[in-house]
Design a protein that fits this description.
eight-stranded parallel barrel; three-stranded mixed sheet; binds phosphoenolpyruvate; binds cobalt (II) ion
Length: about 450
């Protein structure tokens, strides 16, 4: 059945959330160039990640997926990239220490440039222009020139992904993630964080274990000097994804070689839509966002469509329900998936169901709601006899005030101080660490008995 699949097959189905390029010939020229460019990741890495995700579903690893809601070309810089890595490394130290499990680290970076929007057009003062769909499509400024979908941006997105990937790989290979040097991940601007004491204690305990192991082994152990980082982005702009989908000499099938882990967003998750058609044919592990209106009758056929062989590690279901809805929306899905014996990794995104707007016009999320959704998610999985094996978060290493609450109890007025996101509000450093500690409290206690 799958032998007839090709990367272009999605074109036969309705494709939601695609821009309209005014110049079709220009689009074709850009795509032809894109098809020539070298890959950003390898099939071997992709298959390794798929195996790790299968192990996370078995409770042998925990998935931490995090990064920006959307990357931007302007912020493809050294400070933004290193600060984001630092937060993810600090969180993963907390998780490794508390869960006693290896952590699968997937960044929402090196390609997270396309955004779904609620409307094709945006209107301001009687002027109507195409919505901003992420830097891979157009620019956020409200002018006709900036908002015109520009196919050159496909190539710029690929180049910026490659630059990001290159820098992350160089940092990791150069020892940036070395457990002997946790000071490399300190964020310059963090002063007297209320959570720093706990974090330092964990780092010291890990340092001691590392020294102990190395004393036993009589040498410096290479496995403590590096970690794996995988990349992910929403597989939204299908012309782009098609052009980076390739065959390789030694592994059968088609691979999206622009990222390790593409995911299907909630707005493009229809069974008969183009995005599902594209994602079912690639060998990459894929994520599927699941929102609060999805019923078991809708979800099960999508699971079968995306993963007809029920292959472990292939499919991660990322539920994003909202703190108020998860209690009723999630249990029927967990029951159905378990009853039907579907092999999936369950991952919680406590961000996207909790977005709201303040009176002064900021898109924000209350930290209490984020924490509550994650907290409930663990309990709901335990009650259902399923396992929550990962968390999906929007966060940044920059000193922002975008989500309210958290250790410093940010209020509505604080949002004005350092709100930088052009799209969704992100957790800042302290809010991110607090989430990692919450995961340890919830999951650490019973990981072995579930094991
Ligand atoms: C996102 O992850 O940024 C996103 C748009 O999520 P969702 O599809 O779950 O709304
Ligand atoms: Co988002």
């Amino acid at each position: 059945m799958m032998t007839s699949w090709t990367p272009a097959l999605w074109r036969e189905r309705p494709a939601a959330q695609q821009p309209t390029y005014p110049d079709a010939a220009h689009l074709e020229r850009s795509l032809a160039q894109l098809r020539q460019l070298p890959p950003l990741v390898t099939s071997l890495e992709i298959l390794t990640l798929k195996r790790h995700l299968a192990e996370a579903a078995e409770g042998k690893r925990f998935l931490l997926q995090g990064g920006d809601c959307a990357e931007s070309f302007a912020e493809c810089d050294s400070t933004t990239i290193t600060n984001r890595l630092k937060v993810l490394l600090q969180m993963s130290v907390v998780l490794v220490h508390g869960l006693k499990l290896p952590v699968v680290r997937i960044g929402r970076f090196a390609g997270q440039y396309a955004k779904p929007r609620s409307a094709d057009l945006e209107e301001r003062n009687g002027v109507s222009l195409p919505s901003y769909r992420g830097d891979i499509v157009n620019a956020p400024e409200f002018t006709a020139e900036a908002r015109r979908p520009d196919p050159e941006r496909l190539l710029r997105a690929h180049a910026h992904s490659a630059m990001t990937m290159n820098f992350v790989r160089a940092l990791i290979d150069g020892g940036f993630a070395d457990l002997h040097h946790p000071e490399y991940w300190d964020l310059g601007w963090v002063e007297h964080s209320p959570l720093q004491r706990d974090y330092r204690r964990m780092v010291e305990a890990i340092g001691e274990s590392v020294r102990f192991m190395e004393t036993l082994a009589g040498e410096t152990l290479g496995s403590f000097t590096r970690v794996d980082f995988f990349t992910s982005h929403e597989a939204l702009l299908l012309h782009y994804e098609e052009a980076v989908t390739r065959q390789v000499p030694r592994n059968p099938g088609w691979f999206n070689l622009s990222t390790h882990f593409p995911w299907i967003g909630m707005r493009t998750a229809a069974l008969d839509g183009a995005h599902a058609q594209y994602c079912r044919g690639i060998q990459n592990p894929v994520g599927l966002k699941v929102g609060p209106t999805v019923t078991p009758d809708q979800l099960l056929p999508v699971i079968d469509f995306l993963n007809p062989q029920n292959e472990p590690g292939k499919l991660t279901l990322i539920h994003r329900m909202g703190a108020a809805k998860i209690g009723t929306a999630l249990p029927p899905l967990l029951d159905a998936v378990r009853r039907e014996g579907k092999q999936v990794l369950w991952c919680a995104d406590p961000m996207h169901g909790n977005t709201e707007s303040t009176a002064n016009g900021f898109k924000t999320r209350r930290f209490d709601n984020i924490r509550s959704e994650l907290d409930q998610a663990f309990d709901i999985h335990t009650a259902a006899g399923t396992r929550l094996g990962g968390a999906h978060l929007e966060l940044t290493g920059e000193n922002v005030t975008e989500c309210m609450g958290g250790a410093r109890d940010l209020t509505e007025t604080d949002l004005e101080r350092a709100y930088k996101s052009t799209v969704d509000p992100r957790l800042n450093y302290e809010q991110s660490l607090e989430i990692a500690m919450l995961i340890v409290r919830k999951r650490g206690g019973h990981s072995s008995q579930e094991g």
